[in-house]
Task: structure prediction
Amino acid sequence: MEQCWRWFGPEDPIALRKVRQAGATGVVSALHHLAPGAIWSPEAISARQAVIESAGLTWRVVESLPVPTSIRLSEAGHEADLERYIQSLENLGQAGIRTICYNFMPVIDWTRTELAWQAPDGSLALRFEASAWVAFDVFLLQRPGAEAEYNTAQLETAERYLAGLSEAQRKRLIADVASGLPGANEEGHSLESLRDQLARWQGVTPDILRKRLIQFLSEVVPTCERYGMRLAIHPDDPPRPLLGLPRIASCGNDFEILFQAVPSESNGVTLCVGSLTAGSHNNASTLVRRLAPRIHFAHLRSVALEPDGSFVEADHLDGDADLVDVIRVLVAEERKRHHAGRLDWSIAMRPDHGRALDGDIDTLPGYPWLGRLKGLAELRGVLRAVEALT
Ligand code: DNO
Result:
């Protein structure tokens, strides 16, 4: 498995020199300055490639090539956006980039209620607090119909939670949830614009969204096949419906439906262990075995899940998921591909997120320097041991 590092581009406070010193050889990046739907031109792609290569690294994975909302909503005129998406894929294929991560989550991408939860050792982690979520949805956003989706105990706990927050903490909660996290599909929202966006999605059921995703895949996969490229859908994070929006990449069945509908191996998945295991219905060891041939990219991290659905991002090897087992299965899968002569079908991995440690520099939420450095070092140790012993 190639050890990679997510780098947000020239604006990223972590220089590529540091990425190389961390021991990564591959870079996961995107042209974040381009709006979703804009064509990624050959010039823009090769300029980014040149910067990465001049640091002695390779641009291995695109995370993400965002799917414009018009396509996910199947709005009038979305065909032009689709053509541009295919053109971007074509340009990436020409440039030799083979793994493309994307997601189909509506309005809000990955979501947390706290971006600096202090762990007992003083490090700062991302956290999703169930009562904060209900408080946001029912009392701050005041989404029509939200109240009916929770039981009395949940509503009472949320009310108490909200009553305990200062004005500044309430503002913080709104900003943390609505403003969007790094790499998300859409620009951040205020409460007002979030309500407007939700209105756009009224009536879109999971079935409708799934059909659109399958349609999208059948349109883009032929281009991927031509270049030996692999699409890797990112799972819903957390893997449950939020704000009444449909989420269709939350469990093994969701992915299998996609694979059956569009059987090409170019239609694959990003195994984001932390996203998937934030749902008690998912087990990392089961999923990695079930999805192995379609896993083209792995986000390695783990969460500690609580009975009410709250979760906190744990240290990489210390959450609920058995990452040693996950790595063992991925190494075996990759070897199988290599033995079959598919030498460039390696599985890229990156340490996903990390806790901010004392001495860390100010970075994007979830993407600290020291926390990820520690994560990558631990994962590399496991990888080396698995490679040597299996
Ligand atoms: C969070 C990331 C997501 C991911 C997108 C993929 O840390 O895993 O932002 O990049 O959902 O499309």
